[in-house]
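During data preparation, we tokenized the protein backbone, and the record follows.
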Amino acid sequence: MRRRLAGVLIGLSSLLALSGWPLAGWAAADGVAALKAFGQEVHSARASFTQVVISPDGSRRKQSVGTFEFQRPNRFRFEYHRPYEQTIVADGSKVWLWDADLNQVTVRAFDQALGATPAAVLAGAAIERDFELRNEGSGADATGLSWVIAAPKAGEGSIRQLRIGFKGAVLAALEITDAFGQRSRLDFSALDTHANLSAQRFQFTPPAGADVLRQ
């Protein structure tokens, strides 16, 4: 479960939802336009997140919390703090996944790891290249969110579907269904779109004594 949970985020087997990202110059009723504006206008950000993962049969739920940072193009950093510690860093050429409990690092080439994944929606530079986008409906649901469907263009992969939720004029949530039928939802808080992010935040050096697996 741990490896699959982290992997969906970057394509190693998922991730993302946002809360409070302000976007200018688009109509709140048109989620597709909002998503495109997000890709064009938000170049870097930092936030906290809560992620809930539901098993395919709906019987099991797993919650985790952490922080997320990104800087376009193609640099991001996820840090899971609870219930276990993991760090995922993309430096533009490689993606590093460190499991603190195991002191194990998995490394993949960026192009192989990202592709049509939730991380590509946030930190990538070509949303429409990898996804077919459509508005799910014209009105908000019971939670007050309007949803955009992002379906990967690739025939096979780790992601079956993304649902991106907007509340008014902001991105609010992302729901991910993976190839196994597992569903994840992430909600972000304490958003800072003016964070001064240093280049070192998107670099990773394996800790001393860590096992390094290159894929």
Summary: The first helix runs from residue 2 to 10.
